[in-house]
Amino acid sequence: MSDRATRPTTSYEARPEDVHRVLLLYSGGLDTSVMLKWIQEKYDAEVVALTVNLGQPGEDYDVVRGKAQQLGALDSVVVDAREEFARDYVVPAIKANAIYGSAYPLFTALGRPLIARLAVEHARATGCDTIAHGCTGKGNDQVRIEATIATLAPELKVIAPVRSWRMGREEEVAYARDHGIPVKGGSEVAPYSIDDNLWGRSSEGRWIEELDHAPDDDVFQLVTRPELAPDEAEVVTVGFEAGVPVSLNGERLGLVELIERAGEIGGRHGVGIVDHIEDRIVGLKVRDIYEVPAATILLTAHQELERLVGTIHQNQFKPTLDRHWAYLVYAGLWLEPVRTDLDAYMDAANSQVTGTIGLRLYKGSARVVTRSSPNAVYDAQLATFSESGGLFSQEASPGFIELWSLQSRMAWRVRHGDSG
Ligand code: ARG
User: Fold this and answer.
1) Is 193 tagged catalytic?
2) What pLDDT does residue 8 have?
3) For residue 356, which phi and psi values (nearest 5 degrees)?
4) Measuring from atom 10 of ligand 1, which residue has the nearest CA?
């Protein structure tokens, strides 16, 4: 092979001779299972498998660990990072009302920098020289993972076999068969490409790539289809302290449990289905089907409470910062200083975001119906249609209007003349 074909173009990609012991980010799925064997064969290297629990529903980690060992992993580690994910990634996202492209609550994007940081820690602790992940060359996840690793650990190298091996699904399945790797659910139909954690679930691939194909029912695994949801609406209340959700229906809960329960209640009522055309950071436009019941409930409630306690100026300003925060995180720049700078603003603004929001869940919708906060910039006496005195003088209003509209009136006259 030519030098050009083997020499990496970046500072952090591994040359074959660099690779002796590899920390593999292992999900237990087909790609990373094939990788586990392939790395041992191709590089004659040892593999340590790391699996990160971010609250993927229904995952059996003993099975995943057993599979890694059976495939020859030197060691197989499962880390329960749910608390940290909720506290240090989901909570900042809630404070920033984080939504990308008006629809995507960023669950995958939030998980990747944490997974990458844990990979760095475990690679160092187990004497690995290289980290391997299962991302393709077409997605955002490679950007998020590699940017984080290259930032935190310049001494570690990265390999992304799925990006380089150019095996199609059939070849992968054949490789798996030859190497005693169990293939879940047979090999006939390619499954959806799924990623999930506490904060949501995404499906890609198959008919989802046909933009004029309305969702098949079998894609929905977390959220009940609205037409099958209960005929009775349910009101759920979410309590916040300084922007952090602390209770559900009046019951104080730890973050992980609160998010899980919000997801269950929302899922039951068909809340949080998103069918999204998304602009990936690598230039592609793709379609994703998201199921995000917990995020829909908690973000809707948080945003409403923030509006109640914020002034008109705060409420006009913060969404522009929120949007930028979401974009940075989507784009894989979790460790970029402007993100933490923005967090300082988010924390300051959220210091007042204490109170309770009630949402009515009904066949796919989550509508705010009640609000209360000790910090509400709201005075029923002032807002009422019946007469009020004190701070609000209606006699002052015409004077306000005269000055408030002054420039607009002048401009109108300049452009349209006196008759306009
Ligand atoms: N489109 C979303 C994102 O870029 C979800 C990606 C899901 N990742 C996956 N490997 N299936 O964050």
Assistant:
1) yes
2) 76
3) -135, 135
4) 195
